[in-house]
Amino acid sequence: MTLIDELQIIGKDSAPHSGKTIYLAAGWFNPIQEKLLKEAYAALLHNQTVAHVHVPLLHQYEGSNPIVNGEFNPDQEWATATFDDDVSAIDNADVVVALLDASDQDTGTIWEMGYAYASHKPVVVLAVGDTFQYPINLMPAQGAIHHLANNNLETFDFYEINKRFYVGKTI
């Protein structure tokens, strides 16, 4: 079963809520990132302050899959369409939730955080791993309005996002 299949199953039985639209920025290039993405998506679907969660991986250009024979191998058409679709989805979101694997930070996720910040969208970050051993660059560390202390995405109030500073080492 692919990660896309697993995400579709997670989203299948979610009950609709009124609330905010979330853009879920996350890498999916290693087992930690995949697990984090699945858990965060499931938690957000149960959050009473979330109406919709946009997971870019579930909105692939013409239903394509950029992974061929286990390798990430996108063509230019896919890359251009994906970029445009992701930017549009960030523009339409109320909040960007960014998932960071401290030991293997996805540069695409960090770019999405920067674009959201420049677009005056609140960015909430969940970083997993030891951020003292694996520091996060000061730009994404400071660009988020709230750094979650733990994976409380199911109960986080997206209507009342208060400043919570990054805890860890920066580079």
Automatic annotation (TrEMBL):
<dbReference type="Pfam" id="PF05014">
    <property type="entry name" value="Nuc_deoxyrib_tr"/>
</dbReference>
<protein>
    <submittedName>
        <fullName>Nucleoside 2-deoxyribosyltransferase</fullName>
    </submittedName>
</protein>
<dbReference type="InterPro" id="IPR007710">
    <property type="entry name" value="Nucleoside_deoxyribTrfase"/>
</dbReference>
